[in-house]
Amino acid sequence: MADTFNYRIDHHGSLVRPADLRTARAADDPAALRDAELHALQETVALQRRLRCTVVTDGDMPREDFRGAVLDAVSGFRRTGERGPDGLVRWIAESLPKAGGPLLADWAERLTELTVIAPKASLPSPAYLAATTFEPGHGPSSARELGEALAEIIHAEIALLVARGVRLIQLNNPLLLGQLGAEPEAPGALSFEDAMAVDALAVRLDERPEGVRIALAPGWSAPAAVDRARVERLYGTVAADRWVLPLDRGTAAELDLVRALDGDRDLCLGVVDATRADLEDIDTVLERLDAVGEFKDLEDAAVSPSRGFADVADRPLLSAEEQRRKLVLVETVARYVWGNEF
Q: Average pLDDT per run of 10 along the chain, which is 342 residues long?
């Protein structure tokens, strides 16, 4: 795919929300919140342009967390007052979901009005949502049934986003890499086979305009060891154009994840740790990329942070300034590897 690939400086989509946006969300004033969201969108687009990103997202500015594009826009889910250890508010599926309109497409149109850089949209994967919101006895008969309903909604949104000019759409499933080694033990939980099948339904797209990529981020860190047959089954089942994989620890398992990917898929490698403020040594990052280059064509690769900086709006992993330094480092790495050819 090297002949059409050019989205080299990337990030997962969630960026640190400005203080005035967090204040407006806490104040529960819809009009003030809308104004703050629009202002934050303008500021985050300007930031990404200054940092020379090759794609631009809305930074998840209008959302409570990275799942909000779906959970805020479809029926069938109930928000609880509980939070998990990751800071995410727990939602429960009480019926099969139904979409009442576009999920992200309206915000994507605003992006295209603010910049000529290719707009990117990030969505939670249907398998991830099904795995984390299904509860036996609450509506859907199984996590698989819930996942398939969500996959149809997200698949329709992907087609709409592409029609409106979005060129890179990333689905995030933080659970998949963890499932490479073990199946969930809870009754009714989404199995690895079901998770693959559900996410495969969402990413299918019969026709892709020039330059369009459907990406999947299957997790933020590699497992301790990689079962080659299992990971090859994952790549073979889910027909994503681009796989967003971790490369910020320098482990053998990270290289094994990349090595198992066949040659006609794009790679986006998370080369800096989005959870730590200290900056990586650039020579170490380049050595890891050189190791990948021994068996993969880096012309079909991109670099990014390891995960979103603020998957939960009120619990950013880094400060805005620390985030900026990390993104500058990603841009610097890209220029070391590919020069100025983006």
A: 67 94 88 92 92 91 94 95 92 95 86 84 97 92 96 96 91 93 65 96 86 94 90 95 96 95 90 97 97 92 96 95 97 91 56
d(C-alpha 76, C-alpha 93), whole Å? 6
Q: How many residues does the chain have?
A: 342
Q: Say how far apart CA 340 and CA 342 lie, in whole Å.
A: 6
For residue 69, give Cα distances in angstroms to 207, 306, 323.
Answer: 24, 21, 23
Contacts 24+ apart (CB under 8 A), 236-239: 237/196, 237/197, 237/200, 238/196, 238/199, 238/200, 238/203, 239/200, 239/203, 239/204
Which amino acid would we find at residue 182?
Answer: A
pLDDT attached to residue 206: 78
Question: Which 8-state DSSP code applies to residue 312?
Answer: B
Radius of gyration for the chain, computed over Cα atoms and rounded to the nearest angstrom: 19
CA 255 to chain centre: 20
Q: 3-state class of 335 per DSSP?
A: helix
Rounded distance between C-alpha atoms, residue 174 and residue 62, angstroms: 21
Provide the 3-class DSSP secondary structure of residue 217. strand
Distance of CA 158 to the CA centre of its chain: 14
- Amino acid type, 271: V
CA–CA separation, 210 and 188 (whole Å) = 41
* Angle at 303 (CA atoms; ends 300, 307), nearest 5 degrees: 130
pLDDT at 1: 42
The pLDDT, as a whole number, for residue 77 is 97
**Considering the entire predicted model, what is its pTM?**
0.94
What are the structure tokens assigned to 309, written together?
């900086």
* Residue 332, both tokens: 């610097």
Q: How far apart are the first and last CA of the chain?
A: 14
Residue with tokens 């990052």, as numbered in its chain = 285
Contact of 67 with 88, CB cutoff 8 Å? yes
pLDDT at 339: 87
